[in-house]
Write the structure tokens for this entry.
Amino acid sequence: MDRRQIDSEHIVARYLADQLSPAEAEAFEAYYIQHPSMVREIEYALRLKEGLATLRDRRELDTLVQARHTRWGTTLSIAAVLVAALIGGWTWYGARSSPAVLAPTMEALVAESKLALPLGGKYLLVRTRSAQPAALQIPVPDTRSALELQMLPSAGAEGAPYTLTLSRLEDGKNTTIDEAAGLTVGPDGLVTTWVDSGALEPGNHTLTLNPAGSGTLPADRFVIELVPR
Amino acid sequence: MGEHDVPLTDKPSGHEGNQEMLLRDMSGLKAQLTRVTRDAELAADLLQDAIVTALQKLEAGEIEHRGQLDGYVYRVALNHLRNYRRKDKSAVSGPDELPELVDSEGEARPAKAIATGQFSRVVTRLLKEMTSPRDREVLVRFYLQEEDRGALCRSLALTELQFNRVIFRARGRFRQILERRGYDKGDFLGIALAL
């Protein structure tokens, strides 16, 4: 068992729910004894379960779960931004029904949540094709923010529209967090994307930029290391 | 904080005198034990039993590294939790078997004083930030109602990627809120064990 499997198969939650086979549970126990940071993940999951259970006990949970967020925006400018987001990010946004982690524009990033995210930083990612590329360190903002990431694609404008995949990198393996399609190349030759820092955890992540077409143009891979500020 | 870096006081081990150690704050574990047993004292006993069992393994040289002590405590305590969930109380050892365990800092320690009510406040904030009712439902049905994820995905017509996105985002945000409120930094318990 490795971290990728633990993340992708939600092992912590399933272990606490007694949903693992005896062999899986034993393997996970061996893992977290060897990796103390995983014990913290277990403790966090227990706190989440306890918090939910307490709200259920107080009969507050159903109201919170069923609540409708009815913020329609307080100014016309917000409405205009949302319209722009719908137009600019329509191809990418498509059938999404949960808030995005990645988006081609800041407006599209907050279109679902309707939150006004501050700018947490702007970074230009350096392309590398080495087997062990150096990671660009990005401090995770103290408050939930939008990070602007720019990439220079090998295939240039010819590769557009691009699809970008954000994955968590652990033990050399990737677990996909989100994908954004329909990314275009700006006049500066860069592909820009926006990331919601609220969905990120410290550690290494990869961004894979795939050009349109079926493999005739090269994909680019960027590695970032999110570090606590 | 990386691997193997639980800050244990590095004193020579032995059977004479007290051995001071630091363990992670286990508020969530203790709260869940209390919930399942419906008895705070019993939950405290179970947790204490887990700590003592782990320390005995450490003394016996069965634990490679002191940084692994937390893991052993959780493994034993979570086995107690599972046994209670399964209504199998025979696996729980009696308090008479426990060596003397003294909490060196007392019950008034700030980190330990975190009430489970504070977890509910963090979860309330998390739920309020989750704008999609369906995502909130996913979180509750997966973590609280412990529904099988495959059945849950089918029930809500979710792809694996959509399910992962909801859970990763919620988990990461919950962690951020906890850390920002100081529920993680310095959240260790000191114990002095007389063996």
Notes: The beta strands of chain A are 102-103, 119-125, 136-140, 146-151, 162-170, 173-183, 191-196, 203-210, 220-228.
